[in-house]
Design a protein that fits this description.
By secondary structure, the protein is α+β, with helices and mostly antiparallel strands. Helix content is about 30%, strand content about 25%. It has eight helices and 18 strands. The strands form five sheets. The protein has a six-stranded mixed beta sheet with strand order 1-2-6-3-7-17. Helix 1 runs antiparallel to helix 3, helix 3 crosses helix 8 and helix 7 crosses helix 8. The chain is elongated, with a radius of gyration of 23 Å.
Length: about 350
């Protein structure tokens, strides 16, 4: 199928997806549309909950497999919307609609690219396309749910709006709930041990500590105290102080290494909410990266998390659209971004799998 045909199919599919609310955990309608689209184009589509995937026709179990992944869930509309978020509208080369930029444009561009390669024989890699749910809430019933169904994967392209530049590393996220203990007493008397004062040295440590190693693409590990709760009333010395730390990890450390360092230095008990959202990276020498560089794409480190965090393989974040438009009112993607994105995805994969 010619690239121009693929582009027009991608635009029409994106318009369909915009019209169907697909908030995280409520993506059944868009999953139906994607599943039907793949079936109508002669593919054997698979579905588990609101995740849809398909393998290329000439899948060869002796070859490595490359995953093409993006998500079809969206956040809820920003209150500032002046347009109908579920009515696709094209004005001055922009396609408006909720999820058009994050990440509908990426998803339909990857679907078009998969369609381009679907029937080809003698590829160097198998391809598996996965349109997944719950990315916006880092849910457990999205990509993570179907990874066992996809078989052994060698690498992945994760579609997120990067202006088709190469995000070769992505920060991970570790949210820590910390508890400093004291002893209750009356504030008017010399009683008790103030848990707030017990927490202060730890809070100061989080503010000032610098991890020794910095990532080439992501810089230093960043720790921020974002919430503090203590006390029940003005005249009672609090016996407990809870505080929350937002830790943005880099590929210079594993999540476990960062947690160990923190626990060695602070007195409070430290409990991670999750160890799932790991930092990710792909070697600069990887064929996907080298193919992108050969096409004039720039490399950088991304501060935002995506489903890359759930992949235990090298992954490249790349897609049409601009990250700064994600979650904003009157979200849009330029149609030329979509057309160029499909072309660049195809050129990149020709260099790697063709």
């Amino acid at each position: 199928m010619m690239q121009q045909q693929l582009y027009h199919k991608a635009v029409e599919l994106l318009k369909q997806l915009i019209q169907i609310p697909s908030f995280s955990r409520e993506e059944a309608g868009t999953a139906d549309v994607i599943y039907t689209f793949l079936q109508q184009h002669g593919m054997q589509a698979h579905r588990k909950q609101n995740n849809v995937w398909a393998f290329n026709r000439h899948f060869n179990p002796d070859l490595p497999t490359l995953l093409l992944n993006s998500h079809h869930d969206t956040v809820k509309p920003n209150p500032g919307w002046t347009l109908d978020p579920f009515k696709p509208a094209v004005e001055e080369g922009k396609l408006y609609g909720l999820g058009s930029n994050d990440a509908g444009g990426c998803l339909v561009a990857l679907i078009a690219t998969f369609l381009y390669f679907y029937e080809q024989e003698d590829l160097k890699y198998n391809l598996v396309l996965a349109a997944t749910a719950e990315e916006e809430i880092s849910g457990r019933n999205g990509l993570e749910l179907i990874l066992p169904e996809l078989g052994q994967l060698e690498a992945a392209i994760v579609g997120e709006p990067t202006e088709m530049q190469l995000a070769v590393a992505e920060k991970g996220l570790l949210v820590l709930d910390c508890t400093a203990k004291g002893k209750a007493g009356h504030a008017a008397r010399e009683e008790g041990i103030n848990a707030i004062y017990e927490a202060l040295p730890d809070i100061k440590w989080f503010q000032e500590y610098k991890f020794a190693k910095e990532s080439e693409h992501l810089g230093p590990v960043k720790m921020s105290i974002t919430m503090v709760q203590a006390g029940s009333q003005h005249n009672v010395v609090p016996d407990t102080c809870h505080f929350t730390v937002d830790v943005r990890l880099t590929d210079a450390y594993t999540m476990e290494e960062v947690l160990d360092v923190i626990r060695q230095h602070v007195k409070a008990t430290v409990t991670p909410r999750s160890m799932r959202l790991k930092p990710s990276s792909i070697p600069m020498a990887h064929p996907l990266v080298q193919a992108g560089i050969a096409l004039g794409r720039a490399t950088y480190g991304s501060p935002t998390t995506s489903d890359q965090a759930l992949l235990p393989i090298p992954s490249l974040k790349m897609g049409p659209g601009f990250s700064g438009r994600s979650h904003m009112a009157d979200e849009f993607i330029y149609l030329h971004e979509l057309e160029e994105g499909i072309g660049l995805y195809i050129q990149l994969l020709k260099r790697v799998v063709g």
